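HUMAN: Ready with one sample?

ASSISTANT:
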Amino acid sequence: MPALPEGVPVPPDGALPDRVRAVADGAARTRDAALGVYVHVPFCSVRCGYCDFNTYTAAELGGGASQVEYAATALREVDLAARVLDDAGLARPVETVFFGGGTPTMLPPGHLARILGGVRDAWGLAQGAEVTTEANPDSVTPASLAALADAGFTRVSFGMQSAVPHVLATLERTHDPARVPDVVRWARDAGLEVSLDLIYGTPGESLDDWRASLEAVVAAGVDHVSAYALVVEPGTKMHAQVRRGLLALPDEDDQATKYELADEFLAAAGLTWYEVSNWARDDARACRHNLAYWRGHDWWGIGPGAHSYVGAPDGTGVRWWNVKHPRRYAALLAEGRSPGAGRELLTADEAHLERVMLGVRLREGLDLAVLTDAGRHAVVGLVARGLLDGVAAVRGRAVLTLRGRLLADAVVRELTA
């Protein structure tokens, strides 16, 4: 797992800096951006070889960090967050809640419902709020999904990753791919919207394997799909296997071909890209929680290793992150202290880079007025090279073409040079 970034200390009470407070030095302001809540549930039945997320198996934990105690611990941070945002004048109803991990559905539905209830009690949920949980296909039942829907969850995102057994085996995923159509049907019967998450570029995955996964997704008839290129991070088991020559990574051309095939398949099935790695049947089916990240809205991250962000009137903001280990996280909250490990106050240049980097990934694109003079000058060359849409540029937006999506990082570098 990667180390946390460096930063300045978070006050023991978690208080926000003056630059982001709605009331500071006697001056009042409003924060128009939406408020979201992310809940990190750090438990998995096994750790997949490619994963570098902050997750733990049951055998690795204890001493106040068990699954049984987790809901109570997370609610302590919800209480702290409610005090901090209220003191800063930034409390308002929550637009989106997202339970990620790990495998949130390793907790019983009642525990997830209890945490969601704490969020609702702290801030209230906005009308039509989106409430999502991630889940593995082998971590749910018809009854558990119905219980989540009854508790107020509106959406579930299943980690399908692949429909091909040998690809799942390389990723060390434990579910049977034949179960995916069943869990999709169970979730829909419960009244939940459904997304499927895919990974392409696994060592040993052929183009036919990837096509089979896409065919399975289309056959499932879901209204949202995420597809991410596999990134093998240092420190993971898979990274060690690659370094020793036990696994061979595909080249960039292979990953580009698979992305293009995904876009073709999903578009033919009526799903349109709205972010480089995400497709939805229509705007109403897009993941509103993730859109809030990309649009620079506010969120509070609950849980060990979770990150949070609150923006400032000048376009900058503050980001902070919690201690990583669940035992330390639980101990700090038990003492009445913030679990924050560090925070950073974004400079104007850093905030500008993030706005461009995130905004250009969206189908709606980026307002050219956001760019510097040099960035706007670069648009002409990017259009000429087929990386930005020319018609959109004339209308004042930087919108990636299909080729531009494959080279999004290079586009950002030119727009921010």
